[in-house]
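Hi support team,

I've been running sequence recovery on a batch of backbones for a student project. Most finish fine, but this one hangs at about 90% for roughly twenty minutes before it completes. I'm not sure whether the input is malformed or the queue is just slow. I've pasted the structure tokens below so you can try to reproduce it. Let me know if you need the job ID as well.

Thanks,
M.K.
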């Protein structure tokens, strides 16, 4: 197995360099990130240890033919995978999914930009807890802006036999949540917002009245590194405490998972890997994150 180190300021760029140098079968064995002050001073660099089996190594056409390649030490595939999982765990942390509390309703709100898949993810979570776990689940939507949003959630509710309530004003959300106090889980679908505009204040006002146990921020895996910081900063006042990496199946490069885990300040809970309800929702275990990095759901 060929092992090499790569360094750079942005993880997506490093990942592309790994694939250029070692090919699409390359595995990430270790990942170290710069400290907060190093990043603030603009001096920090990520360091990636990557490997590929020699039989699968595709020589780069840009590499000089007369220059002999270095021969790093061999690493067993089993040990390599173990180190990869350790690196993913160190960067993204242990998975932190939604956990129900006996004797009371758990309130879970989903927030994020327009088109990231909040309503479908609400349906997937509802199906998991209601149909698979047999829990009492209620659905609330505050998204009265997007055409068809209410009808979409009502359709899911009818199929699963779950109550669906539409809330048009922030003050009404608290009363709606109180009506389902005897349920196990209340899921709130919020309107998608452009993080560059002030309408996020409406979502924040509504959530501040009910104080969800979980506020899941959905981030599309295709979000560019330059935009990710702005998105996280805009949604941080809403108090998100979990992350959902959305549209993993649509990302040509899943290295954004590492960037998200490194910079978001909240643990990953789930990955969404398609449109199917309830199948295309994965708990963000190190194994599933690694599978995404290795291209399991790559188009």
């Amino acid at each position: 197995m060929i092992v090499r180190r790569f360094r750079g300021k942005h993880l997506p760029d490093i990942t592309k360099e790994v694939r250029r140098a070692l090919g699409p079968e390359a595995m990430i064995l270790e990942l170290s990130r710069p400290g907060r002050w190093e990043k603030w001073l603009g001096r920090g660099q990520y360091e990636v240890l990557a490997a590929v089996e020699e039989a699968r190594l595709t020589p780069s056409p840009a590499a000089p033919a007369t220059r002999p390649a270095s021969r790093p030490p061999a690493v067993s595939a089993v040990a390599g995978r173990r180190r990869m999982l350790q690196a993913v765990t160190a960067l993204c942390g242990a998975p932190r999914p939604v956990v129900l509390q006996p004797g009371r309703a758990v309130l879970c709100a989903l927030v994020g930009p327009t088109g990231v898949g909040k309503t479908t993810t609400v349906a997937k979570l509802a199906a998991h807890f209601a149909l698979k776990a047999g829990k009492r689940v209620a659905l609330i939507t505050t998204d009265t802006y997007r055409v068809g949003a209410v009808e979409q959630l009502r359709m899911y509710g009818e199929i699963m036999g779950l109550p669906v309530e539409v809330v048009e004003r922030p003050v009404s959300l608290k009363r709606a949540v109180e009506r389902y106090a005897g349920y196990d889980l209340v899921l709130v679908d919020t309107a998608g917002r452009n993080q560059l505009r002030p309408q996020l204040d409406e979502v924040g006002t509504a959530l501040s009245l009910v104080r969800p146990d979980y506020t899941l921020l959905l981030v599309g895996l295709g979000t560019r590194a330059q935009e990710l910081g702005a998105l996280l900063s805009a949604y941080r006042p809403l108090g998100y405490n979990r992350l959902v990496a959305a549209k993993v199946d649509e990302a040509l490069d899943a290295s954004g998972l590492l960037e998200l885990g490194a910079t978001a300040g909240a643990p990953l809970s789930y990955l969404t890997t398609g449109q199917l309800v309830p199948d295309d929702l994965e708990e963000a275990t190190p194994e599933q994150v690694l599978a995404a990095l290795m291209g399991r759901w790559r188009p």
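--
Follow-up from support: It reproduced on our side and the slowdown came from queue contention, not your input. The radius of gyration is 21 Å. No action needed from you.
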